[in-house]
Amino acid sequence: MKLSGDIVYSNGEKEEEEEEVGEGKSGRKLVVGYALTSKKVKSFLQPKLERLARKKGILFVAIDQSRPLSEQGPFDIVLHKLTGREWQQILEDYHEQHPEVTVLDPPDAIQHLYNRQSMLQQVSDLNFSDPHGEVGVPKQLVITDDPLSIPLAVAQAGLSLPLVAKPLVVDGSAKSHELSLAYDQFSLSMLEPPLVLQEFVNHGGVLFKVYIVGEAIKVVRRFSLPNVNKHDLLHHTGLFRFPRVSCASANAEDADLDPSIAELPPRPMLERLARELRRCLGLRLFNIDVIREHGTRDRFYVIDINYFPGYGKMPGYEHIFTDFLLSLVKGEYRRRISTS
Fold it and tell me: Where is the Inositol 1,3,4-trisphosphate 5/6-kinase ATP-grasp domain (predicted)?
């Protein structure tokens, strides 16, 4: 059975009107300066995005990291995904000098998503409950040193096996997205801190990747870890390591799934959750990985949040993203056009 999510646009304007805002009668283009890794440039700036952007009057310009940012541009928007204190300071200084430029997103806000403890704490603090369902985070424990101390720490915290282990720091590397599943106490000492341990929640082997672009959301299904039953706990021991399990190659959109597992989370609930996370995180470009507890319809968990995720894997991303960029400056361009 094939089920698919909907695209929700950040506004209901017609494309013709957006083109007028992006370039308009004045011929003024919307200039987006970008500072991305070469890997990110390849995955994000795909030809279909650049073609549509040009059609709508949006120009992407690479930021030269060897030159002062203040000497480049002028930019309407700065789009970035670089790490490091030096780059953060450059952006903060630039925004102070050019407050009219939109920086996506503020570097100090992004820092919260580079640590899995602070990342999910934001969700926990929401105490999110909605008529359509409840959203929480799995019970978790942070381990910063001595792997031999992990079994005792887990027992004292009251966590139940199996446990999912994830690196504490998210630095964009493949290793920071790897995870391990520990079935018994003895295997816990084989883990490598610093890390976060999460109680494993059975979720039917499917997670929902919720992409957020401003006010727009897009939900896709990805295969995930299968359920663990009592038989598995009795007959499996040790540590099982997995690469990134929710990547595009794990696409579950066309899979023949049990409808109770494949059913997307209620859209009104996700829209409200996205709105509250945008507010508390101070971000507009991120995604959340959501699972539904197996055997329930309305109990959900957020297990990961990523800043500026792989939008190139999101169906229709070029339309959603260009709509979003235009919406940021629409009012400003209308004022310019009216006074030109």
Answer: 132-326
